[in-house]
Each structure stands twice: as C-alpha cells, then as structure tokens.
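call fold(seq) -> tokens
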Amino acid sequence: MGLIYAEIELVNADDVAFAKRNIIGEEEIKHMRVNMLVDTGAYNLCINESIQEQLSLPFIEKRKAQLANGHIEEYNIVGPVIVKFKNRRTVCNAMVLQGDNEPLLGSIPLEDMDVLIHPLREELIVNPDHPYSAQMKLK
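ret:
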C-alpha cells in the first residue's frame, strides 16, 4: 500500500465560536483546505507553521513527542481546530511541525471521525458501516 492523502478542511474553532456570538462575521472565519498525509502511525493532527499562521491558531502549550527515528523533540500545541472530511468533523488541538513540513492526519482525529483507509483503492473513506454519521464505542 502506498501513501494515502486526503483533502481536509481545517477551521479555526475559536472563530466559529466568535461568529456564533456575533463578535465577528461568518466571512471572517479562517479556514483552508489542505491535502494531508493520512498517517495512522501518528496520534495527533500535525500541521506546519504556515498553516498555523494562516489559521491564526493560538498557542496552548509545549509538548514533547518521539519521532520515527527515536529522537524526542518539543513542539507547540495550538488550537482548537475543526477538522472536516466529507460528512465528518471533529475538534482537536494540533501539533505544529517546523517550517513547511508535511501535515499529518493522525489516528485520534481519524478515529473520532469514524473514517477508514480503503487498502485497495488507497484512499480515505467514510466508514461504510456508518455512512450517515460517525459512530464511536464508549467502552
């Protein structure tokens, strides 16, 4: 199986909350479409500095993460960000990768949106067992 990419919409969740309270107009909500690598080996949503800047996502904390090569590095956590794929959405924080690194859609947002990788078609799909809305296990 090759690399899987998906067209994901990212939205500044704070902007959505401000628009609901009529603090800003709906046209001021910062959002963008990003072609993201679907990476089940990553846990979190990982964006780069350019995406963080364009969405104006506020800093929350610093957190350490272990890379595939075993090195441990510290990253900024920003958010909240709304992640949308087809008829699915989730809200999460994002780890900011330095520079123009490739953004990653990790297993936690994938699980929360109830989406799957179709191995033969090599694409991200909505779970066919729950086509109309995400379903989760509580136990």
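The longest helix spans residues 13-20.
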